[in-house]
Amino acid sequence: MTICILGAGPGGATAALHLARAGHRCLLLDRATFPRDKVCGDALSGKVLSELRRIDEALPAKLAAEPAQLPSWGIDFYAPNGRRLAVPFKPHYNPATDRAAGHISKRIDFDNFLIEEVRRRPEIDFRENTDVAAHEQLPDGRWRLLGPDKQEIATADVLLVANGAQSNFARVVGGHVLEPAHHCAGLRAYYRGVTGLHPDNFIELHFIKEFLPGYLWIFPLPDGQANVGVGMLSEAVAKKKVKLRERLDEILRTHPALKGRFATAERLGPVRGFGLPLGSKRRPLSGPSYLLLGDAGSLIDPFSGEGISHAMVSGRHAADWAARAVAARNFTPEFLKGYDAAVYNRLWQELRLSRAMQCLLGYPWLFNFIANRAANNPTLAETISNMFLDLDLRERLRQPSFYLKLLLGK
Ligand SMILES: Cc1cc2nc3c(=O)[nH]c(=O)nc-3n(C[C@H](O)[C@H](O)[C@H](O)COP(=O)(O)OP(=O)(O)OC[C@H]3O[C@@H](n4cnc5c(N)ncnc54)[C@H](O)[C@@H]3O)c2cc1C
User: Fold this and answer.
1) Is 131 close to ligand 1, i.e. is its CB under 6 Å away?
2) Which atom of ligand 1 lies closest to the CA of 130?
3) How far apart are CA 76 and CA 375, in angstroms?
4) What is the DSSP string of 141-184?
């Protein structure tokens, strides 16, 4: 019985590592040779740490000891009126004694950190530099994978499709077509010498009035570098005919709060773009003898753009359901629907809430209002901080009573 994983990013690597831990052999294919770059904001949330812990209890501490990462203690939100709302991931944190709840690490390093774990496992047959150019389903239901010159690479009883946002398989077989209302366009560049970064490496999200519903981020990195980028719903990019590259350049040159901070900064390498398939719509994640993982399954958080941890969550459940299917010798769509249920049981509530928060971007005044209130109200600032850890608190953002209490100053 062959379990084959297409794509060795966080989704595919996590699936392979869970399978290996459970004693299953698998084939892991990627067209790149690692370490490889991936266009991303490079922010690793607390959920990434908890997924690492599920792979191996020792991994979060191992990541924290890597020189190629920075621990991050929170988020600085900049409201459209320019007001800063500092939200620590943990209220009253102490960087000297607490473990950081988030990290920032270039993907060339973080993905390779996972691949180093993969390389240690004899159960995983990892083949880099292997481009899967085509796939076909055999009459017995197995998937046959072909290289660019049509030679057979492998056949799989069950195929775990984790080959990212541009997955041909997800589009053609899984039916995940690009829907501009559920897709974000993103750009990022690396800089050195950006000034005014937070001493505890807070990541910065800027909601600039003239650039809404898009946002700009500045995420500090080791060696005095920073990941700087912009994201905007593809529907808005098309409707407003936004030229993202030009806008990014212009904002960094002219925005009153940013131009000074970039005056002596140096851009390292090109500005690179990539798509973010958002999980704001529930889509099928499986079919006959296959499962879709991570970006190939459109699972990115629509508000924060976070997709690494969601790819890892889906990788963990995909390993579980692939093993179940092998044990039951059942690769039917009906059986594999259990995978969809498992992934959405874990992620759907958050995705739904983030969709609601994404809609907040259409109401800059509400954003300003919350930022103003929180600046003068430590309890509110703490509530917002706790929202990162507590879903029930985040649910309050959907309730009119939350805003009423704010209005009344409670
Ligand atoms: C601009 C931008 C900023 C982002 N910022 C953040 C952030 O700060 N934090 C966060 O959590 N998420 C962020 N994301 C989302 C995050 O990058 C993705 O959700 C995450 O990479 C998904 O992981 P994955 O394993 O599904 O796919 P990927 O990481 O894309 O991995 C897919 C793998 O498949 C391989 N592959 C593709 N096609 C083939 C083929 N035909 N044959 C063989 N191999 C193939 C590729 O080489 C690649 O290694 C951002 C995304 C963008 C575009």
Assistant:
1) yes
2) 43
3) 12
4) S-EEEE-TTS-EEEEESEEEE---TT-HHHHHTS-----GGGEE
Q: Indicate which residue's Cα is closest to atom 50 of ligand 1.
A: 40
Whether omega before 35 lies within 30 degrees of 0, making that bond cis, reads: yes
CA geometry: angle 270, 47, 213, nearest 5 deg: 50
**Which carries the bigger pLDDT value, residue 373 or residue 247?**
247
Does the C-beta of 384 come closer than 6 Å to ligand 1?
no
pLDDT at position 386: 61
Specify the pLDDT at position 383: 66
Average pLDDT over residues 225-233: 97
- Please report which confidence band the pLDDT of residue 247 belongs to, taking 50, 70 and 90 as the band edges: very high
279 lines ligand 1 (CB under 6 A): no
- pLDDT computed for residue 271 by the predictor: 98
Q: Go through the domains of the chain in sequence order and give each one's CATH number.
A: 3-69+106-178+280-357 (3.50.50.60)
